[in-house]
Structure formats: structure tokens, C-alpha cells
From TrEMBL:
It comes from the Archaea. Belongs to the eukaryotic/archaeal RNase P protein component 1 family. It is found in: Cytoplasm. It is an enzyme of class 3 (hydrolase). It comes from Pyrodictium occultum. Its main location: cytoplasm. It catalyses: Endonucleolytic cleavage of RNA, removing 5'-extranucleotides from tRNA precursor. This is Ribonuclease P protein component 1. The keyword Hydrolase applies.
């Protein structure tokens, strides 16, 4: 499945570029780099030759999709590792809701990405 702005939270983030827009630690705001590792609670970014640990909690990220476009993602949306995020989708009987920018989108296993059901 392709990475799109609406299904990015169900994909692995390792290898994608990310920028920290908002974070409780002011020193991490504006940091941009490649995601080297993703854990339940944070991301390891390689930025300017240094490796930085960035917590997902209370953070807002700008993540670059493989096609080159950027998408804003709240840390709460990517809480947990990919398998846990997929289990949350499965636990809700194949339907998950994501509220972003005042819109409600619904995900199902068989739904083509980017369409509402």
C-alpha cells in the first residue's frame, strides 16, 4: 500500500524525513532529519550528523512522504509502533477514525486510500 497523508499513521516511519514543528522541549523545535528508529514512545532522528531522541508525546511532526509531499502528524496519532497502530485499527472491527484539520476520515482494510466511506 502506498504512503498517503491519510494512511501514514499505519505505516512504518523508518527511513522517512521528519521535522519537529512543536515539542515540549524548545531545543527540539525545528529539528529535521531522517527517522532511524521508531519505538512506542519516540523517534530517533539523524539530523546534521547527530542523533536525537524525540518523544512522540505532545509533539507535532511534519513528515515527508516518499512522493515528496509533507503531512502534519500529531504524536498521539503515531503512538506505539506500527503493529500496535494496526491492532488498534483491527480492534475497532476494521474501521478506524482519524480527525485531522476538522475533518473525519474513516479507514477500512479494503478501502482505497484517500476516499471516504
Amino acid at each position: 500500500m502506498r504512503h498517503t497523508e491519510w494512511n501514514i499513521i499505519f505505516h512504518t516511519l523508518v527511513g522517512l524525513r521528519a521535522r519537529v514543528l512543536l515539542h515540549p522541549d524548545p531545543g527540539l523545535r525545528g529539528v529535521e532529519g531522517r527517522i532511524l528508529l521508531e519505538t512506542r514512545r519516540g523517534l530517533l532522528l539523524e539530523a546534521d550528523g547527530r542523533r536525537l531522541w524525540v518523544s512522540k508525546a505532545n509533539a507535532i511532526f511534519l513528515i515527508q512522504l516518499p512522493g515528496g509531499s509533507w503531512v502534519v502528524v500529531r504524536g498521539e496519532e503515531i503512538r506505539g509502533v506500527q503493529s500496535e497502530r494496526l491492532k488498534r485499527l483491527e480492534r475497532s472491527k476494521g474501521v478506524g477514525w482519524l480527525v485531522r484539520a476538522g475533518e473525519k476520515r474513516r479507514y477500512t482494510w479494503g478501502q482505497p486510500s484517500g476516499e471516504d466511506v
